[in-house]
Amino acid sequence: MTPTEPTAPLPPTTGTATRPRPRGWFIPWLVLAIAAIYVLSVIGRMNPPSKPFNLESLARLPVIDGGRMKPLETVARVNLRMISQRETFVDDAGDTQPAIRWYLDVIASGSKEAHGKAWKYRVFRIENDQLLAELGLKPREGLRYSLDEIAPQIGKLDARARTAFRKKMDKKPMDLLEVKLLELSERLELFFNLANLTSPLMVPPQSPGEEWNSIGRLRADSRKAALVAVLKPTQEQLAVPERFAKITADQRNELLIRLGGYVTPPMDPAVVDRILLGFLSEKPDALSGNDLAERLITLGEIMTEQENATLLSLASAAESQGFAQNAAAQQWLKMIETFQASKPDEFNTALQEYRDKYLTQVSSYDITKTSAEAYYNRFAPFYICTALYVLVFTLCALSWLGMTEPLRKSAFYLLYFTLIIHTAALIARMYFQDRWSVFVTNLYSSAVFIGWGCVVMGLILEKLYPIGIGNTVAAVLGVGTAIISHNLGAGGDTLEMMQAVLDTNFWLSTHVTTVTFGYTATFVAGFIGAAYIARMLATIIRNSFQEPGKASPADLLVFSLAAFGLTAIPVMLVGIGLNSAADFEVIPRFIADILTFLVIAAGTVYALVLLFARASTENLDAQGHPITGTVPVVARAMNNLALDADASKKLTQMIYGVVCFATLLSFVGTVLGGIWADQSWGRFWGWDPKENGAVLIVLWNALILHARWAGLVRDRGLAVLAVVGNMITAWSWFGTNQLGIGLHNYGFDSRLAKGCRYFWLSQTAIIALGLLPRSYWGSSLKAIRGTAVAPLASGTPGSVVQSPVPNLSAANESHARQTKNKKNGKKR
Amino acid sequence: MSTTVETVTTSTASGSPGPWHYFRIVLKTLASLQLTVVLFLCSIGLVFFGTVAQMEYGIWTVVDQYFWSWYVLVPFDLFQKFGQIFFDLSPTEPRWTGSFPFPAGKLLGGAMLVNLIAAHMARFRVSWKRSGILLIHSGLILLFVGEFITREYAVEQQMAINEGDSVNYTQDTRNYELAFVRKTADGEQVTVIPQELLQNKGRISNSELPFDVEVVKFMKNASFFDPAPDLPNTATAGAGLKILAQEMKEEAGVETQQKGDIPALYLQLFKKGTQDSLGTFLVTPLLTIQGVTESLPDGDGVVKMSMRNKRYYKPFSVHLIEFRHDKYVGTMTPKNYSSRVVLLDPEEGVEREVVISMNSPLRYRGETFYQADFDKRTEKTTYLQVVRNPGWIIPYVSCAVVTLGMIVHFGIFLTQFLIRRAAA
Predict the structure, then answer these.
(1) Minimal Cα distance from A680: which residue of B?
(2) Measured between CA atoms, how close is A544 to chain B, in angstroms?
(3) Which of the residues A174, A420, A666, A736 could staple to A693 if both were Cys, CB 3.0 to 4.6 A apart?
(4) In this predicted model, what pLDDT tens digit does every residue of B3-22 receive, in sequence order?
(5) From A184-198, A310-324, B143-157, the region with the lowest mean pLDDT
(6) What is the ipTM of this complex?
(7) CA angle A495, A498, A504 (to 5 degrees)
(8) Per the omega criterion (within 30 degrees of 0), is the bond before A200 cis?
(9) At A703, phi and psi to the nearest 5?
(10) What's the predicted TM-score (pTM) here?
(11) B 91-120: CB under 8 A from A
């Protein structure tokens, strides 16, 4: 490790002019400038076009969807994301267009027969090969298909979709094709709900007390009212005895079959009369729209033309009443018509008119809020944060290779910068939901919040211990949680409304926030533990090169484990990053695959080179006596990474401190959850999987602390236990949620379960590597090992004094004790 | 205890091991931190097993087996289930058989308590530095006690009220009774036979009862069929002629949702003190819910017989003014459930209006009323969960104590650390 300045990371403000500037002083500022330019460039090009059609203004119109007022832009983006897994689309001219444009084309696409423009856009993502084959489609880059391509084939699968739906309702296991088929039919439903304007509620109230409504609903109500208005007099007219008597026997049979579904009509004329009169006295309002129309047609067929003409005039009179009278809805139709007719000026005027006239019942607070949400969507703060965290990670990785201090500082400043954006985004989400101090409302927001917490903790740790570890952990967890949240956010609006029992700001802001902070702290401790183990592996490599004499097979085995293990860590991180980038279509899949292959190959080659270098080195002098060897150039980075007494002590202190914090937070959080449960259903503790998950974290952190106090573990042991904490937290965060799903449905989209599995496997590998024998790396810590015992642990239940510690000689132990006692004495 | 003190002095003075010496060895072993760590490890295992086991069994069965017994036989197929979800094991593979014993909640909880108390006996020192630890541990002991009290003494019942009605009793949703109700001039006269008596065959006669009752067959859980010519029917009178009950395996605990068992009872009624049979009847809560009761002539009036949930009458009554089920605009997502009720207690002279909603229960006379459920069809009937838990306050206190303890303990060391760092 290059020694770091003992002073605070920021240089003192006075006297800088006289002091020579350290090498690379400008790098942090350069990095910040690049980040600032990046953010500004995003702001510069984030708005949808306002010409020729003013999409920018349209996108900010308030509507209600999912029980929440939001800008139309959110509706467009969320629906497109659910259908297409991205928030933009490529139009028929090959240009990338914003979601709002797609939405406008969808609502202007007219009836199902019209096959409007939106039917030609390739937006429906179908990933399953089998389903594609069934639909007669060929896999293509992006796997997106247009409605025109899907619609002719989908009818064939109707029966199977129905079976699948029934299975889902009965909670029976489905096969993969059925799951994917249901998914597609749900996406089609989303599309048609938008197209026929049944969702969202876009017609605002025009007087106090009125409610928001959807155009589709208004139209259906109006249509129904018209049908009722006709059917009622029709029935009454037919029920009049003279008219009723005129219905012929054939007509009677027809009516029985079509209205009553009689297969063989009863023969007794008296019974027939009674049944028919029964139908005619039914109240039309109670029938559904389709039944109404059906009945009207049936009855219309037995009426004379003249009778029908009079009745139909009633219909048009009724139809002009409801929907046609709703000026706001008509204004929407006007906008849609002008758009269809490509009359941008008229469209823009109609839009402005709508804004001026029909939003009077929407408070200006809500208008501002929805506008703000639209800007938030366009800015996509978490996307930016992810990019910046990737940059921080790159800086951290480079800092281990050289230019350590300037790069560490750059990473530190850049983290601060990114944290500001991240924090602002969290606050904006609270504002949109009107839930101040509530950070977490669903799994998505928990991921976003955990990422934030990790960065905050990483920065604090970096401030306390400026050795680059806090930065690295913050960056890795920042990117990791961003990937997780991006996956979780694919399923719909991330600002969803809370179910009744969860709708309480007090408990959301206390219990949920604390318990999530508990997760955060446990993860941070675990990742520092992993960093400790990584540096331990580097120590093994370096020490092995310096070890006098020829390497034994056992030495080489440990060496190769360390070499491959250490290279695997960055390779794995980069691999996950590339794979996610391909998933989210930041880079094409084949490029990601090639890069992943190259990274894996490079890692493997590097590990092999190290192994070869070690195997071919015989640290013997000319006479064949063992001498201390030198670290070859290829392994130079190991000098930076290897642990020494000081680094080991600092890392141990960091882990210990964070675990204490995690214990406190997870305990308080869990208990607050218990109190909430007692408040809402009278049971303090219900042994629910999620509760159990939280208590596991508490127990594990308590175990780490007690094992530390008992002297069962010290530096390395603490690190290994902290890594186990990662596995437990992942179980609690996501694993427990899978149980409920797994109970009923094995065919469920199991991405989270898969994520858990790979995470657990990776952590198990790290733990296994962390158990490599101390004799291969412990010597580097020997210089002042006594003080390497975390001084924070003094004063806890007379532990170290009481129990013998494995791995340490008695002399060392007594030394440790003396140092400790001296220290304690000094403090008192 | 002066003798003990003497023993200590002698044993330390002479060096010969006395009983006190062995006591100390035992105490030290019991108090050891290594034991604490092992107990933590076992608890983690237990909680994990108890979580995965809930995939197969209902929460109450799991709580009984894993958390409220001394030991538990953990089946190996638990791991299979876990593997099926997380490690792509085939769901069609034959089930893994066998199980292994594992210490359960009572044993681990007890051991932890002993370990904790022993630790304080063996290493008891009062200093401001240890005040945090002391607080944490005493809070935890309190938590154990609280859980014990809840488990042993808490009673859960249900109160169902229709809009506009007043109800002065709660129901035990898991126990039933046979009720005879006779209308009198000033109300109702109710005589009940509790479930315990109905489970034994034989004749029940009591001066309060209008008839002698002979239990023909009691079924803890029954399924129901339409009668068919080839199926023998035990019932000879009443609703039992139109519906058949057949015994079924108990469902208790298998389902997480309290779908629960539906009991059924075939009984023969006799005129008091005679062998004159009035017929064999079928009674079951299923019929009672549907509003079917047996009307039996008795003297100059009519007695209605039905099997219903066991009731506990209260000295006060709750009148439901309105039940509300609010949804978010344009969605089916529930926003809130609440019951506006009037609490009427003539004894105490209480008459007040209260709104019971999710997250805001009513506490009255040692009982707590929670908004639990409602009639999904009419949305006019509310179900209140009624819990009497004498220890409800304990978790609150203990948690406050533990939290305070942790803040003190970690706070002390954090401050020291920061001071030391500033000095360095």
Answers:
(1) B359
(2) 34
(3) A736
(4) 333 333 434 445 567 888 88
(5) A310-324
(6) 0.83
(7) 120
(8) yes
(9) -60, -45
(10) 0.84
(11) 91, 119
